[in-house]
Design a protein that fits this description.
Layout lengths: L9 H9 L3 H21 L7 H26 L5 H14 L6 H20 L1 E2 L2 E2 L3 H11 L15 H14 L3 H21 L4 H11 L2 H8 L10 H16 L7 E2 L3 E2 L2 H15 L5 E12 L2 E8 L10 E5 L11 E5 L2 E3 L4 E7 L7 H7 L6 E8 L12 E6 L4 H10 L8 E7 L8 H7 L2 E6 L11 E4 L4 H7 L7 E6 L1 H13 L4 E6 L4
Parallel strand pairs: 12-13, 12-16, 13-14, 14-15, 16-17
Antiparallel strand pairs: 1-2, 3-4, 5-6, 5-11, 6-10, 7-8, 7-11, 9-10
């Protein structure tokens, strides 16, 4: 048996996608598809003239940008430029490309309404429906145009599939995307077989001639319109998949005006998602910054309204700033404390001395009293309902944060839990939340490259690397424990593989995905 954690093939994907935010990755991916479409058009592989593509793209980008700036100014909020570009590029692939003035007017109206939907079809600062889908529905109702989803064509499919996979992987939405494609694809195939198609033709139609792959990777994964919990996301994906496939069996008229289409199916799913989660803007006021170590700190905020929160969940925050780098203006952080009685919300952040992002640099420089906006609380990194179930918690660096929020549940005198925490840190003298962990009394095994100056009493200190052999030796009852892993994506992947090899009872992960 190897003494090292197995390096997973997914590691290079984490490095490839982890250097940019989800929004930037989507912009890059859609930009590559736009470039490909122009190349295919020039080569005659697409039935659209290059000038029609170019003029349509300019109109969509121009109107989307200008209208979003206008609405942001009217509502007194910061315009998210990357989100605007994504909406315009999605509309580029959904609507018919043309240089005809009437068709261009429809494109402009779709882009303008897509921007408006972020502010008008919203609840307390958070939009409810996918803006691109809303724009297409708008011009369809006006009978000016409609969604043609011309991106669904054989020459585009390999690139669409590859890039959609990267987006789904980056956002950890692969199960949801896979379920949607399976449900929608299999239903379409079944409907086509019922119409006397052969299996090959039915499958080709389902996965090539419909936008099922593009829809799943670039539309369904839009983060602000998803429900907060994994099972809810799967349920919505399955439901939208059925609605997506239904028109292949029957033409369903909605309100006597339009028929059920992919964009309508998505809007219905968005509305369902809205009622499943905490869908409101959350105003946070910074109270204090507390140093946890040389490169880590905890930020304590006052929330204007109580949060609906379960220990282990995350919060998404937005910090607009000038000259934002490729990591953007939004982040997702695990919550270390959220007191519904006092409105106190805190989370720990690693801020490297060098090479930090513009977001973290700006965040770290916020003075007390600064106000920021959070948009959602969610996640499934929560403890089992049964307190008798033994737990193994494995954290890497600042990945300890969600476990800190678990401590109250773990040490409840009425129902104490059997917990082993394996804490891997690179710097033996930077151990965030060491006081809180020591006070909890849970068993802590510190794995580090060197000897800490002063290890807390009762902690086991292991000098070296976190290995599969170490886990097997120090946690001999691992097969009976529910394992939780939190930290950088590569670390989470490697540790999860080791746990599967050791046949841990269950494994739940919380990688640093962010947006």
């Amino acid at each position: 048996m190897s003494n090292q954690l197995t390096r997973r093939p997914a590691g290079w994907l984490d490095r490839l996608t982890g250097g940019v935010t989800m929004y930037r990755l989507v912009v890059i991916s859609l930009g590559l598809l736009v470039t490909l479409s122009f190349g295919l058009s020039w080569g005659g592989a697409l039935p659209y003239e290059p000038q029609d593509l170019a003029i349509s793209l300019v109109v969509l980008l121009g109107v989307a940008y200008a209208s979003n700036r206008l609405y942001a100014g009217l509502f007194g909020v910061h315009a998210h430029s990357e989100s605007t570009v994504i909406t315009a590029l999605l509309l580029f692939f959904l609507l018919w490309p043309s240089s005809d003035p009437v068709e261009l007017l429809a494109l402009g109206l779709a882009a303008a309404f897509a921007s408006a939907s972020k502010y008008l079809i919203a609840y307390r600062g958070r939009h409810i429906v996918n803006p691109a889908a809303a724009g297409v529905v708008f011009v369809t109702v006006l009978q000016l145009s409609g969604g043609v989803w011309w991106v669904a064509t054989a020459p585009m499919l390999p690139a669409v599939a590859g890039l959609a996979f990267l987006v789904a992987y980056r956002t950890r939405r692969l199960p949801m995307v896979g379920l949607f494609i399976a449900v929608a694809g299999l239903l379409i195939i079944a409907f086509r077989l019922g119409a006397d198609d052969d299996l090959v033709s039915a499958a080709q139609y389902a996965f090539v001639s419909t936008p099922v792959v593009f829809f799943a990777g670039f539309m369904l994964t839009e983060p602000l319109t998803l429900p907060p919990l994994f099972k809810q996301q799967l349920a919505v994906a399955a439901g939208v998949g059925m609605l997506f496939a239904l028109p292949n069996a029957v033409s369903l008229q909605l309100g006597g005006v339009i028929t059920l289409t992919p964009e309508i199916a998505l809007v219905i799913g968005n509305v369902v998602s809205f009622f499943l989660g905490q869908r409101r803007a959350i105003e946070l006021t910074l109270k204090e910054r507390r140093a946890l170590g040389p490169t880590t700190a905890e930020f304590v905020f006052q929330s204007e309204d109580p949060l609906s929160f379960r220990p282990g969940q995350f919060i998404e925050v937005t910090v607009p700033h000038r000259r934002a780098d490729s990591r953007g203006i939004r982040r997702v952080f695990s919550i270390s404390t959220a007191d519904p009685d006092t409105g106190i919300v805190s989370f720990g952040i690693k801020i490297p001395a060098e090479g930090t992002s513009s977001f973290k640099r700006t965040f770290n420089e916020l003075p007390p009293g600064s106000r920021i906006q959070a948009t959602s609380v969610g996640g499934d990194f929560v403890l089992p309902n049964d307190p008798a179930e033994p737990l193994l918690m494995i954290a890497g660096g600042i990945g300890i944060t969600p476990f800190v929020s678990h401590l109250a549940e773990c040490t409840d005198p009425a129902a104490p839990r059997d917990v082993v925490l394996v804490y891997s840190v690179a710097d033996p003298n930077e151990i965030p939340y060491r006081a809180e962990l020591s006070a909890s009394g849970i068993r802590v095994m510190l794995v580090t490259s060197g000897q800490p100056h002063q290890a807390p009493d009762g902690w086991e200190v292991v000098t070296g690397r976190l290995t599969r052999q170490l886990l097997q030796d120090r946690v001999p009852d691992i097969t009976g424990r529910h394992a939780y892993v939190s930290g950088p994506p590569a670390m989470v992947n490697d540790v999860s593989a080791a746990l599967r090899g050791l046949k841990a009872k269950k494994i739940k992960t919380d990688a640093f995905v962010g947006y």
